Amino acid sequence: MPLVKIFARAGMTKSIPLAALQSRLCDIWSTKPETTKLILSRVEDWTSDSYHEDCYIDIRAYGKSERTREMVLDGMQQVQQAFADHDLVANVRLETYEGERYFHVPPKK
Questions:
Q1: How many secondary structure helices (H) and strands (E) does the chain include?
Q2: CA 12 from chain center: how many Å?
Q3: Which helix (H) or strand (E) holds 20?
Q4: Each residue of 20-53: pLDDT tens digit?
Q5: What single DSSP character describes residue 48?
Q6: 55 - beta bridge partners?
Q7: How far is the CA of 31 from the CAs of 25, 61, 70, in angstroms?
Q8: What is residue 10's three-state secondary structure?
Q9: Which pLDDT belongs to residue 50?
Q10: How many alpha carbons lie under 13 Å from residue 52 in its C-beta half-sphere?
């Protein structure tokens, strides 16, 4: 399950269309909406850097063998472009994990 944490400054006035971005990220990573969770956190501030981003994107995803370094870096650039398509400058970070060390207990339906 890719978990996409989106951090944006509380005072930012640009819209962040989660449903549209989720759809695009599912296309990029070949995942389903049921397994691709986007969480938006509005923060008061963050430390300055030279990127001048609107959003800081932190992605955690299962480290499948087909997700080579080249494929992941290409996907990250596509994620950055998906945000740019909505006039958002995104600083994208991705971390993979081993499946044997992942646990998830969803709510009962």
A1: 2, 4
A2: 18
A3: helix 18-29
A4: 999 999 999 999 999 999 999 999 988 877 778 9
A5: -
A6: 8, 90
A7: 8, 11, 18
A8: coil
A9: 72
A10: 0
